[in-house]
Amino acid sequence: MFERLDQWISGRSHPKHMFVQKKVQEIECVHCHARFLRWSSTIAAYGRCDQCAAEFDDAAKTGH
User: Fold this and answer.
1) Domain boundaries, the chain
2) Are strands 35-39 and 24-28 parallel, antiparallel or unpaired?
3) Contact 24/37 with Cβ under 8 angstroms?
């Protein structure tokens, strides 16, 4: 059994290092139209700048 395991381990291809290219992109806030930068991988999560998002969260908590 250990011989099979050793054969399997030695026969495996070792993973190659993969470099993920992160790009910074400028996007526009849908509320105040301010421009700000975000990593391209996280753009889908942002529609508002940090200030508008904080104001929106505060308004939602207080009910205004």
Assistant:
1) 23-64
2) antiparallel
3) yes
What are the pLDDT tens digits along the chain (64 aa)?
Answer: 568 777 777 776 666 655 556 788 898 998 899 998 888 888 878 888 889 988 888 888 887 6
DSSP-assigned states of every residue in 1-63: -HHHHHHHHHHSPPPPP-PPPP-EEEEE-TTT--EEEEEGGGGGG-SS-HHHHHHHHHHHHHT
Q: Contact, 38 vs 24, CB < 8 A?
A: yes
The pTM for the full model equals: 0.49
